[in-house]
Amino acid sequence: MPKRNDYIPWDEYFMGISLLSACRSKDPNTQVGACIVNSDRRIMSVGYNGFPAGCSDDEFPWERQGDELSTKYPYVCHAELNAILNCRGANLSGSKIYVALFPCNECAKAIIQSGIREVVYLSDKYADTPATKASKRMLNAAGVKLTRLLPTRDEIVISFKENDI
Q: In principle, which of 51, 62, 125, 161 could form an S-S bond with 55, CB 3.0–4.6 Å?
């Protein structure tokens, strides 16, 4: 019997892990996940956008507008930074980070400082914002490769049904 030939490529696999991680986010508007992979294709860490550990999801705001301290923005930790921090100091030099949404300027700083050498992303919907422009400028200056993933499929369905295993 020949082997299967419809398996997913590595980039889609790791982006899938990133998207699955995003499902852990409790943000009612934007769910982003990140997956960091070393040069041996081993997952080093994952993260998603949410409040820091110890900050209750019920006590901090999820609003997007209003007085800044009444919005989520000063409190939420982005997926990329969470993934970097979840590594607990592991060496990330030469690794890749997979994210659905192109990283903001604050996450770009952490990506550069951590030694990550490539950002693989799906969407660049905020390309015209100052934060994304600053991010690209810094990432390019630091020699971080930017790769937009062009998937070979539109979706991957995950089933928890015992009969599908």
A: 51
Residue 33: which of 21, 41, 43 has the closest Cα? 21
pLDDT at 165 over 80: no
Secondary structure of the chain in HEC code, one letter for each residue: CCCCCCCCCHHHHHHHHHHHHHCCCCCCCCCCEEEEECCCCCEEEEEECECCCCCCCCCCCCCCCCCHHHCCCCCCECHHHHHHHHCCCCCCCCCEEEEEECCCHHHHHHHHHHCCCEEEEEECCCCCCHHHHHHHHHHHHCCCEEEECCCCCCCCCCCCCHHHC
Average pLDDT across the chain, whole number = 94
CA neighbours closer than 13 Å in the CB half-sphere of residue 128: 0
**pTM exceeding 0.85:** yes
Structure confidence by residue, pLDDT tens digits, 26-38: 999 999 999 999 9
Measured in whole angstroms, the distance separating CA 15 from the mean position of its chain's CA atoms is 8
Tens of pLDDT, residues 112-134: 999 999 999 999 999 999 999 99
